[in-house]
Structure formats: structure tokens, C-alpha cells
Design brief:
- This protein is 36% helix and 21% strand.
- The protein has a ten-stranded mixed beta sheet with strand order 3-2-1-4-5-10-9-6-7-8, sandwiched between helices.
- It has two domains: 101 residues, HUPs (Rossmann fold); 138 residues, Rossmann fold (3-Layer(aba) Sandwich), CATH 3.40.50.12370.
- The protein is α/β, with parallel strands linked by helices.
Length: 281
């Protein structure tokens, strides 16, 4: 699921304050993965016909990109950074960019600040996380605090891909990893079933051997997966989930990944194999 070595980290920006948080996260990921960073702004005046056309319509957009470029260079001066001002709708533009990217970084559009947002929201960040051709990192307005990387697994091939990504991320960030599997209590009143604990240990073992420096906390919880993982996110630096555990080929998000986007206070990476989806023109 690794992207080509020359694939870029792409970050989409607009005129919101959250965009600069997304740029900082994107620059950090680009530096950690030794990749170049591409900052993209979709320029689409036709989408707002009621707004007056500025005398120099491109200038505000160019200034926005200049601010984003300056932010990236301040936080990670060693990485290569380019900018692109592209005329077209935001979602179409970023989906096209994701088709050849290693990682797409976007702001959450305020999702984490609005607990009443409907689960079927057409928020830009949700659409991109569901349909992008690469993994998507969704930034929050509040910078992430230091803490472990958190990943949820359910035994599916897709969630094991998220586990692989999470181990690599924890190693690069030089932090701990918390691996959580949640199972149906099914009337159980004691601890988690021993066979599930053993299955999780067996799933984690190959990556623990590959990344011996990563300290791992394995947890099996009883109950609802979304609620259990959201509770754990409060102490995490970054949350990693698969796009859809049982059907990774579908261009939609599963219940757990949606819950993380809507309710986790920390940045979320929705993992998908690079170039895994066709982006319709």
C-alpha cells in the first residue's frame, strides 16, 4: 500500500484559520517521510456568482498560497515545497490531486467543534476522506498534543493495513502506539474473551518484530467500537483508521472511520491503499 517514492504530500488550503494547521501537519508528514509538499488552492469564482468579482480576482488566492508557503517553510525549512492555484471546484480538484499523491491533508471544516453535525453530512472533509485515491489526514483547529498514535483494528485486511500504517507512523513520530480492538460483549460480564486477546497479539506480532523500537499497548475492549475508540482519542496525538474495514473497495466510509471524523478531537488519518479509487472527471 506504499505510494511511489516520488509521490507528494498534498495539502488543500482555503482562507480559513484551520488551513494553516493543516499546512503545519502536512509539512511535518512530508519531512518525516522525506517527501515534497504541494500546497493546492482551488480557485472557483463561478461557484459564488452572487459575490462581486474583485478587480484582481487571482490576487487574494495568490496571497493565501504565499502565506501557506511561508508557514510550511518556517516549520520544516528542509522540505521542498511547491504551490498550485487551480481553477475548479474544491472537491473535484483535490480528488484529482489525490490520485497521484502519497497523502492528502485537509482541514475538518469544523466537524470536531460541532457535536450535532449529522452523520450523513456532505462536509468537504468527509467526502474527500471517503473518495480520495490515497490516505487522507484530517486536521483539527487545535494543534495535536503529544501522545501515542491510536489505531483501531477488527481483524479485516483493511484494518491490518491501518495497523501497518500506524506502526510506521509511530516509529517516524518516535512515540508509543495504542492498538484497540473492540468486540461485542454478548452477555459477558468479566474481561475480554481470551481468544480475542490472543488473536490481537498474533496480529500485532509481525509488525512489532518489524518495528522493535515502538512500544505497544494492546487493548481489547467490550462494547461499541465507535464509543470506545472516541474515548481513547482524548489522549492520542493521532488516530489511524481504515476507510472501511470489511469492504475496503467501496468508495464510502465505515461507521468507525465516520465516528472518528465527527467526534475525535485529534487529527485522523483515514488509510486507503494509494491510487486505490478511480476519480471520475
Amino acid at each position: 500500500m506504499n505510494a511511489p517514492s516520488d509521490a507528494l504530500v498534498v495539502v488543500g488550503v482555503d482562507d480559513s484559520r484551520l488551513s494553516l494547521s493543516a499546512v503545519r501537519l502536512a509539512a511535518r508528514e512530508a519531512a518525516l517521510h522525506s517527501r515534497a509538499l504541494r500546497i493546492v488552492h482551488a480557485f472557483n469564482w463561478a461557484a459564488n456568482p452572487s459575490e462581486p468579482m474583485p478587480e484582481e480576482p487571482r490576487r487574494p488566492a495568490e496571497e493565501l498560497l504565499e502565506r501557506a508557503l511561508g508557514t510550511a517553510r518556517r516549520v520544516q525549512p528542509e522540505i521542498e515545497v511547491t504551490t498550485a492555484l487551480i481553477e475548479g471546484p474544491v472537491i473535484t480538484t483535490l480528488l484529482r490531486e489525490s490520485g497521484s499523491a502519497a497523502l492528502l491533508v485537509i482541514g475538518d471544516g469544523g466537524l470536531a467543534l460541532d457535536p450535532d453535525v449529522p452523520a450523513d453530512s456532505d462536509a468537504t472533509s468527509v467526502q474527500l476522506a471517503a473518495r480520495a485515491g490515497c490516505s487522507v489526514l484530517v486536521a483539527r483547529e487545535t494543534p495535536p498534543s503529544s501522545g501515542p498514535v491510536l489505531v483501531g483494528v477488527d481483524g479485516s485486511a483493511s484494518s491490518l493495513g491501518a495497523l501497518d500504517y500506524a506502526f510506521d507512523t509511530a516509529a517516524r513520530h518516535r512515540t508509543d502506539l495504542v492498538v484497540v480492538q473492540v468486540c461485542d460483549p454478548d452477555g459477558a460480564t468479566g474481561g475480554p474473551p481470551p481468544e480475542i486477546v490472543e488473536q490481537l497479539a498474533e496480529a500485532v506480532a509481525p509488525w512489532q518484530r518489524k518495528y522493535p523500537s515502538v512500544r505497544v499497548d494492546q487493548q481489547v475492549r467490550l462494547g461499541d467500537p465507535e464509543s470506545a475508540l472516541v474515548q481513547e482519542t482524548r489522549r492520542a496525538e493521532l488516530v489511524v483508521v481504515s476507510a472501511r474495514g470489511d469492504e475496503p473497495w467501496r468508495g464510502m466510509l465505515g461507521a468507525v472511520s465516520q465516528a472518528m471524523l465527527y467526534h475525535a478531537p485529534t487529527p485522523v488519518i483515514v488509510v486507503r491503499g494509494a491510487h486505490g479509487l478511480y476519480v471520475q472527471e
